[in-house]
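Sequence in, structure out. First:
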Amino acid sequence: MVLGRGNSNCNDQMSSLKRNFIYNNLLGVTNVIFPLVTFPYATRVLGPDGIGITSFAISFSAFFIILSSLGIPIYGIREIAKCRENKERLSKTFSELVLIQSIWSVFVIIIYAIILLVTDTYKDEMNLKYLSFVHILSGIGLLNWFFQGIENYKYISIVNFIVKVLAIILLFILVSKESDYWLYYLIFVLSALMAMIINFYYSFKFVKISFKNLNLKRHLTPVLVLFSTQLAISLYVNLDLVMLKYLSGDEQVGYYTVAIKVVKTTLLVVSSLGAVLIPRIALLIEQQKKDKVKKLIEKSVQFVLLLAFPIMIGFGMLSKDIVLLFAGDKFLYATTLMYFLLPLVLLIGMSNIFGLQILVPSNKENKLLIGVLVGAILNFSFNLLLIPIYNANGAAISTIVTEIVITLLLYRFCKTSLSFNIPYKKSIEYFLISLLFIPVGILLSCFLKGIFFILFFSAICGIVYSGILFWRKDAFFMNNLLKPILKKIRL
């Protein structure tokens, strides 16, 4: 498909973008349903300590996965998108990036082995130690950046669904008592390993790997900048759990894990449109079509605002019931943490637009690096100060402060790269409509509890929110959400 020729090609672009959005939403729904099915079971079987131990192992390994990725999961989307219409260039770029990452990964694995050798990490958990090596290796080869770059979201969604279903089956078969926490981690690792193997095999349908006449040097500077960016992001994303373990204990890690998992699950919905826009924006910038980029960014901003406010207030009203359903009464402390963390839905939704949809496709990754470095330093400092005093609450406050600073910095940086408007009046309107959820929740809570309260509250609030937007003839809601849904129903 050649982009940018006539009305038919323009329609093809929008059609493919909508298909990608649908498939990415299916991916998001799968990723939402998976923890809703598995985590309640795991928390009840393993308890706070078991969940805390495995959450630490996952976060600790995730840091080294980010380290070994060398910024390619972000950089690769942009570069693959630029050359996806030329198979020879596509194969060469793919080969160069895979070779760079493979060489670097060898050094990372060696560093990881040395750290485990000289520290007490996993001293009494040999199963977790050996599994963590497999986890890191499998995370390196996921290649999602390649399939995102060629906009093959259908494939990503299907593979993700298959792997998740198998993981659910294994969980219910293998994990049955508290001492099975290492099996819980094993299933997590096997899922990543299976996805890696499938992705590598399927990638050969689009590219041929060759190590002749490669130009690795041209990638080094942007890759190193984005690597530093991902490293800083990894620090403040995973640092909370790691610092909680050492400054507070496994139990606090378990509480924080429940709260952050619930909140970040909602981010899959808010960020679903932005994820499919990254390769498209990169291609449009390469073709110097800034007007189209501006329109896409403004749509992405309004999409986040439209969903973020009802999600934040709705989940705030449901927090206790969700924690009880999701993790059990042993984790009720996580309810308070959710109140602190819910603003992440808006903050991360907006910072993803500013950083990943504007700065990276515009080759301004150095600005993104500055923003996340400031955030990582702030996150570490506030964690060090607040966790010993307030435990998991301190980690939650630190996370929110960090994201506020990052979002404001990235907004300032991206305004120099692209002129776009933020609908402030609309955001106030969405917020005020969402406030109606509070009396609805208070009234329903007098009659319903648990899953019935969650279902009825969600349904009524969804009808109220959509109904008011329809009554006010909100153009974005009508044209981009309601009409496409009605069209699908008629079909």
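Second:
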Amino acid sequence: MPFFTCIDNFIDEDIQKDIKRYIYCKELGTSPYEGSFDKQPALWVDKYFVIKKAFAKFETNQISKIKREQKNGR
């Protein structure tokens, strides 16, 4: 991969902050910003759902990998 793309495409400080905020809020059950759902910035709500979907896909892939390995006897 390093020959085809720049590392900045994979590690972005702003994205890392958003992921940290997502995990923190999910683990502690708090809102990232003051107020109820309708008071949250629209951009954050969009980012939240993108991050949530990415984590769900990652988890699904991990489960599928484990099932394949168990089926193949590894």
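Remark: The first helix runs from residue 13 to 28.
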